[in-house]
Structure to design on (195 residues):
């Protein structure tokens, strides 16, 4: 992780695999740009991964130090690596996230807040949750330069994909110390306002 200078002094670069040291300096509210290989998966792929763990079977990919983007992209138009690739609501993965964090997952990317159980698991396993802007799916897809299905091809858009990203912009919502940008915002702006 390196801090940018000049006009984006508060934007940090992240590239998997991530270690504890890469995440300890991040705080809720900081901007990051993600580069390198991450994984894309939604509800059905998460369910299958947890079912595999429950059955004592190996996961199709090693999640140690990795990032998962909660995405179910549309088909790639000609000349593009991927179609529209906006984030899905992260709460859908809350029932599965603690198990994957136990496997070494270090960052999750999506939209919306996380459950108390997931926030506790992030602190325990020193992981972070990042948000990307919902409603900007076509723009986000420009940051994805390669996409390949690596497991669960039958799930279509919800298959597990290996994504190569360059400059994917995100914001730290939950840091490794329990900081929560959404809670901070509610505390700051939710009290004392009058209409």
């Amino acid at each position: 992780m390196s801090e940018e200078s000049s006009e984006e002094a508060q934007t940090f670069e992240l590239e998997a695999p991530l270690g504890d040291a890469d995440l300890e300096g991040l705080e809720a509210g900081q901007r990051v740009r993600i580069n390198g290989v991450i994984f894309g998966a939604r509800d059905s792929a998460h369910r299958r991964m947890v079912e595999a763990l429950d059955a004592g079977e190996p996961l199709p990919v090693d999640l140690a130090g990795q990032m998962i983007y909660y995405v179910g992209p549309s088909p790639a138009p000609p000349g593009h690596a991927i179609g529209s690739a906006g984030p899905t609501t992260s709460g859908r993965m809350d029932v599965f996230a603690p198990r994957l964090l136990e496997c070494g997952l270090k960052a999750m990317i999506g939209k919306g807040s996380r459950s108390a159980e997931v926030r506790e698991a992030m602190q325990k396993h020193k992981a972070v949750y990042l948000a990307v802007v919902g409603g900007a799916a076509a723009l986000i897809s420009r940051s994805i330069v390669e996409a390949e299905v690596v497991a669960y091809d039958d799930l279509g858009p919800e298959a597990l994909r290996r994504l190569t990203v360059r400059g994917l912009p995100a914001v730290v919502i939950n840091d490794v110390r329990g900081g929560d940008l959404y809670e901070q915002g509610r505390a700051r702006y939710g009290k004392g306002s009058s209409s």
